[in-house]
Amino acid sequence: MNDWLIHSDYASAPLNIATLVFSVLLAFLIGQTIAWVYMLTHSGLSYSRSFVNSLIVIPMIVTLVMTVMANNLVTAFGMMAVFAIVRFRNILRDTFDSTYILWSLGMGMACGTQRFPVAIVGCLLTGAVILYLSFTNFGSRHRYDVIVNLHWAPHCPNWRICRACCTGTAGKPSAPANARMKGTKALIYRIDC
Which of 26, 67, 167, 191 has a CA between 20 and 30 Å from the CA of residue 81? Predict the structure, then answer.
């Protein structure tokens, strides 16, 4: 069985199984690094566990696609362009999330074309820049952004009084005033100090 697996590649340039395994494992490790950087630097409300998991899997899938298309790089890059054109049903709420998707695609392409030094150095440098931007708050105009979420039972007799008090001090709510969340009423305010 092992002999069949190794010698069953009839492409014009047969693939070394050890190189394939190394490429996919390196893509996995780079995907883990991208996901950890995302988890450390994400500060918005749109955090999604499935998005973090996809940041790990995308480089591995792209590595496999690039490996399959290794004999014709033009076709491989064309396939990646088709993937980029596909509109996903899930909308990215934070514009910086698209940076993580592109980072994952680029690292997968580097691993799939066996440019391992480019993948490793590119991952480390891009991660360092993103961490720098996050920890220094580069580009922010406000020092503090506070989001206040208020939840109470729908039978609360002081609902209108609480809403009037919050509106008077914090401005307009950023969500509809009677947003329902599992049987409770909610007001979400964003306060810029």
Answer: 26
